[in-house]
Amino acid sequence: MENSFVVSTLTAAIRSGTPLLFAVLGDILTERTGVMNLGIEGLMLVGAIGGFFTSYLTGNLLLAVIVAMVAGALLASVHAFFTITLKINQIVSGLAITFLGTGISGIWGANYVGIVAEKFDPVKIPLLGDIPYIGKIMFNQDLLVYISYLLVPILFIYIYRTKSGMILRAVGESPRAADSRGISVTKTRYIYTIAGGALTAVGGAYLSLAYNSMWIEDMTAGKGWIAVALVLFATWDPAKAMLGAYLFGGITALGLRLQAIGTHISSDFLKMLPYILTVIVLLFTSTEKLKRKVGAPEALGIPYSREDRE
Amino acid sequence: MKKILGLVFLVIMVSLIFAEPLKVAFVYIGPAGDAGWTFEHDRGRLYLEEALGDDVETQFIENVPESSEAAGVIQGYARKGFDLIFTTSFGYMDPTLEVAKKYPDTIFMHCSGYKTNENMGTYFGRMYQPRYLSGLIAGEMTEDNLIGYVAAFPIPEVIRGINAFALGVKAVNPDAKIKVVWTNTWFDPTIEKEAAISLLDLGADVIAQHQDSPAAQQAAQDYGAYCIGYDSDMNAFAPEAYLGAPIWDFGPYYTKIAESVQNGTWTNEPFWGGLDTGIVKLVISDLVPEDVKEMVLEKQEEIIDGELEPFAGPIYDNEGNLKYAEGELPTDEELLAMDWFVDNVEGNL
To answer: Is A272 exposed, middle or buried (0-12, 13-18, 19+ CB in 10 A)?
Structure first.
């Protein structure tokens, strides 16, 4: 009983943390170049409908993920154009992306409510899946979860250990210095804003292709905003993003399970837990000094133009 | 008398000549594509348009929070000259009343509340009746005698539904228990599904719900269990698990109200309609064996004829207290304020 409780909770932590993880990883890529993107909710929604639409029409799940990524990339390129080329306030543009994505997905999905399509089912990985406890928790998940496992170290190494990663960070920390070294700030920011948007959209597609097999308007139900907080929590670090995403998923899962087994903890309190965590994180990352300490990209939120001299 | 008749005649003539379509607005809590609560209201709106054709013109707004923002939205419609405004969530009650007092010539209809005004009515359905019937199905279909119930908020509307369901279960299967998990949200497919899984992991083999999305049903299907939906006929979402659902059908009622506003017979008489009015219904899927289906339909007839009352005593709460003795019935006020569980329900309140 105890074991199955723990296994059930941790399995759920990974399952419900995965959409957040994709979204946060995508946003980390974008924000590392200094482009703040609050449009995660909108990007996830276009990913969710793009993926579901394709899965329903073609039955091809990999194609569905690709279409979700293209949808996310297209929407993110709007953000890139607004913030990088037109130098519009990044927060305002991010909010606009959320509204735009919500609207587009609602219209696109209007005829796809109430149907089911192909979905990613859990697949046990041979050998690894037989490890006691860990096998059941980690290696009886679906393909997208396994991809996210791989993505975390790949992005970690990419960001911190490769030349491209160094350029990416340089543009986010000190665009002027990067520029003087002959790096195109504009091009770099465009690439990672669009790539980040594509990855974030997979988080949405996870909801409509793996978590459930359906499209419902606004099915992210605020997950994009939790992801925004998680980016801070993770201090723009892919490994911590994984920790944060599973922690959030796990707390929700734990709250529901404690109720189910009949403990008398107020359900309101349990529902509150993830948000308390968010507030604490925001507290620790709110001031400029702390931000620098935790590793926020120095130029985050600041449009770059060559002509401006300080 | 002649004068009045003359006046009435004049009004009718004028209204015939200048017959403008009745302008009807709907304020929704969720998106029309939620496949649940708002979806059903919007189907009601489309039914109304279909039924009255050119005599009616409708507009709607989605995702209106139950805050001060709601009053602004409702007032916006009133100012734009809408004749009839439906506000379709409990939390719109006070904002609706506030605006109704400012616009006496507009008719306001608020769903699921209890406050009214000269120009503001309230309407809802006795959902507990079809819920009781769905409990009969669940009680017959469970093999492990553990039924999970994924529920939104511990408020009377939801508690009443759980109790009616549990009484239905008990009527056919006194050994079965109902376990409740609160999600504290009307609509969040992820949490709804997780809540269902937390119950399925404990061994529940039927999942019922008071949520606005069909996510819990897909969880039941993944686990090879059965499920009972809510709000809307959700068969397509989990065809291998779906036993049926207590559902809403607002269309005919919305049409009736719009007509009554058009011909001036509208009153603010509160409406709480049961199975007999058709505003609430029960859907039974083909997974339910024929004999169970027949039994449930029989009970449905008994409820419609007034012979069967789901909350008829004796009823005990889950702490062992007798709430209603043999032959006793709760009043509507008591039903609307219900804050305790019947004896075969386990959950926090």
So the answer is: middle
